[in-house]
Amino acid sequence: MLTFSLVRLVERSNKFKPYFSIPFSKKLLVFLCLSFLFALPQASAQRLNFEFKNATLDSAFSLIAAQTNYKFQYDSLVIKNAKPLNLIVKDDEITSILHKIFENQPVNYELKDNIVIVKSRDLPRSQTTQSPSNRSKVVTISGMVVDEKNNPLSDVSVRIKANALFGTVSGKNGYFTLSNIPRRALLVFSSVGFVNSEFDLSSLSDEHLKNLNIVLKANSGDLDEVVVVALGVQKKISVVGAIATVNPRELIGPTRSLTNQLAGRVAGVSFSQSSGQPGKDGANFIIRGINSVKGSSEPLVLIDGLRRNIDDVDPNDIESFSILKDASATAVYGLEGANGIIVITTKTGKIADRPSVSMFLSSSVNNATYKPKWIDAVQYAKIRNEAFAVRGKDKPYSDEIIEKFGDQDMDFYPNIDWYNALIKPNNLSHKGNFNIGGGGNVVTYYMSGGYYMEDGMFRGNLESYNSNAKYNQFNFRSNLKADITKTTTLGLGFDGRYNNTTEPGQGTNQILTIINEINPTLFPTQYSNGTAPEEPAGTVNPFSLLNKTGFVRNYSNVMSTNLNITQKLDFLTKGLFFNGIASFSKINDYSHQYIKAYQQHRPDFTNSYLGSGRDEDGNLVTINTTPDLDDKMRFVSAPPSGNRVVEVQGSLNYARDFGKDFTTSGLILYKQREFMADVPAGTGSTLLINALPIREQSIAGRITGGYKNRYFTDINFGASGSQMFTPDKRWSTFPSVGLGWVVSEEGFFKTIKPVVNLLKFRGSYGVVGATGNALRFGYLAGTAPRDGYTFGFGGTAYSGQNIQGIGESKLEQLGLTWEKNKKMNLGLELGLFNSFRLILDYFRNTREAQLINLNRLPATLGLVTVPQANLGEMYANGIDLDVSYTKSFGDFRINYIRGILTYNENVIVENGELDPRMPYQSGIGLDWGRGLNYISLGLFKDQEDIDNSPVQTWNLVMPGDIKYKDINGDGLITPEDRIWLGNTNPKWTYSLAVDFSYKNWVLATRVIGKADMFRTINGGRIPFNASGSNGAIYQVAYDNHWTPASYSGNPDTENPNAVYPRLGVGSDNTNNAQQSTFWLREATYLRLADIEIGYNWIPKSENMPFKSVYLFMRGDNVATFSKFKDWNPEQTSSYAYPLKRTFSLGVNVKFKL
């Protein structure tokens, strides 16, 4: 209140009135900033009055803590034998009071900022050195206490087990020294949040006593560890749902996207990365497979309880990361929980905690994981000659021309490697984060800022501007909390992300498409005199598109703030509290386009030296073929777009233990959310419906119970409302129930518990909802202008004119309602020897009443919008397996060896398909992701083989062309002979991760893979298929295609197992270009996802400004092993921006303040 009073005092002064004619929001910002400054400990000048009569030290500490901002840290055993305190204090300072309190006591203290650390005094020498023999049995020890990641731990209690009064605490860097202790003592190391560790000195050499390395393990006992669940926190042992957690430290890396670091770390989560373009390189991920015929399968992401984009959070700011997979975990979210939920909480400061400062920096070199192997101009001319000749046509290239392609005369005989001409071998990226957190007795704070910058892979800096595909991102986060009363906590969160993306003027995708289709002989990148070459009809020069069409810069910023309050209501009943959140987010997107055209040129053979196209000095002479084209750059600002999101939540929560046996908790929550329709930047949409906000409401509840840490139950419901449906169908309720039995807590289990430390069974069933791909106000009828008809038969002013009318474009549909996903989960958790852990889940999800289009309706109805119906249905079933092992062997520690396996099958029950021509062409009952394919029987051997086979109706079929199977037996190969084959979605995903450490060294690596997955290389990529002239041709097509012996002179070239069929030009390839199993390739792969080697340097000197400095070298996406060689099997096409391989150097520093 001191800060607020100062602001008000100054505001009321007439002298300062001109400066305070500002909105209250800005005054509030000033107040918060000043509050942060006053939050640091500052009670040392406070004058105090106390009176102690036969008081214990414990009661004295409590009284002082209640009236000051000082906290006491001590072990109750240490002060057990302290003397009663009789002391009167009047108008004295805290330092003087502490001195008087500890005078003549068997304990002493150390003052660190506003924390009083109580420790026992050293034993008097008379008790330890009574004789020479006794003197030989006492020693001085020293060492360091660290956690499992080699981070130093301060304020760890170090005491002798046989004498609790004798001990010390570790210092700032984790170091401790203890003198005059028995040589055979048993030490006990303890700290809040860690498992106590006992250390026997008798087994150590004297040299080792001076350099002890004590590792404390985080207190992750099954009975005490907690996890973040839907709308709260639960003890891990009591969780009955399928919930997985990820250590946030595993998500911190040098790459931009958090989703790429998440890949392969959680059983049941599938991932796919389609592009490596800076800013667009995030992985798509789904939980337990695709479960919607037409709608999205993307999970909900909650950051601090609010719906957000997963890229809105810096991994350095994450406190906890949970994935909710089954109905008992997600039902309370109603319409938002159908696809699973990711729950992220961000870091906050701690009460009475000195500032903690961290910095993360990394720089990386990136290169493409795959580089296409295309033929050069000489090979292109030869293979094109063959394609013409083997189909009875004249060769387009003479031997003389082919020879000149090899002479490197790029002006007249180009030989262009378009990939290398436009794509750099390497590019750089940089990432950083700086954060600080801490708190006083009332206010805690956490603030963070980060950046990511990446230059793209294009060679786009020919002109005065840089048109490379680049990305810059800056983000920040601030979390403030204040205990405004003993029962009321107020929090203010503020976060933002700003990014800008640069692309070539004509877009990245178009350039990549042309690179994949242009041949090496067409024209040079540019002429030797720097001019752009003329482009024949139907062709485009990708080098000119990249360097001569300007650039586009897209800007995006997201600003979010949330105010939350927690009010304890113990005066009503113990364990009751209220939690409220109000949030506002603003998203702005806008685009600036700097666009230009380019003039084209061709060699001038008329006005050149001897008609050579060059002057007397050999310089190229060109003529401008587009002299009237304006090539000046112009600026275009596309209409901005954006969104605003307002969300309010309020929940009444209850959690209480009744004795040692029974625990219960519950909540009831209401929330509402309002946002605008998503209109992409630059579309300039003027539809009125886009100006209407979308509103959602939900009510949720949960009741949990536990008995003796053995039996648990969890009952949830979520009721959600959406404007997508009619008022009578707008609301729907989604319940779930879960049960758990911890067998290892049963009395009969005690004898084997040292071996089987955990055995738990759990199961859940419930329903979660979704609106699917429902249209806004889809239940309402609609009209639209129609073509009209000729009016009248004559005699009127409008006779013979076409009069436009209004027709019904959309039917009224009052029966549309919610999609429902019925989820069942059975789980087993097993722990052995406190080192091995297995988690196994079987699941089956059935998503019913999915909204699909009624494509069966005839076009004669004249409807613009196809009606929908709740007819779609899919089910997914599979297993999630997570196995881990951890163990310490002295200085060597297996932090974890972890294997993850997921099997997932997604089957279509109803998708609204039109009745297929043949029953076997129905997709019903098949897994999602297949395509209609002809079955290839190989290549035709000769004309006799063709004559004795079913007729293939595509042009002239010749030996060496693809032979197809006649499925329906009618003697003809027609579309009725296609069947569904080749799932592009993997059924199996797996990973293996290891993390080892030896003293201060760390080695961690991870491999991930997918199996039972296919890619089609597309018959359309056959050489010279479509245009008859253009096309980048793979080296394998040149090396391994069927060639008639009559052309090659070698019968071995009539290879029945050739990778490519007989060549042809244009329509010659129609037969071979059909989608068939000939072009289907298995794309199973194993990838070395990352490998990291690090060293954690912990300064021994107390004068160093660092707590620890972690230095690391790291590789991401290092290598991929697969039979599929056409492109990176993670991607579905060679046309996409290449995925990146990244090699990084980085440092993570923790400072002392």
Automatic annotation (TrEMBL):
Domain TonB-dependent receptor plug residue range list: 241-341
GO cellular component: cell outer membrane
Pfam family, one: CarbopepD_reg_2
Xref: Gene3D superfamilies: Carboxypeptidase-like, regulatory domain (2.60.40.1120), TonB-dependent receptor, plug domain (2.170.130.10)
Keyword Repeat among UniProt keywords: no
Subcellular location field: Cell outer membrane
This protein's UniProt keywords: Cell outer membrane, Membrane, Transmembrane, Transmembrane beta strand, Transport
Record flagged with keyword Ion transport: no
Major localization listed first in the record, in broad terms: membrane
Domain of life: Bacteria
Membrane topology: Multi-pass membrane protein
Family note: Belongs to the TonB-dependent receptor family.
Record's protein name: TonB-linked SusC/RagA family outer membrane protein
Organism of origin: Sphingobacterium detergens
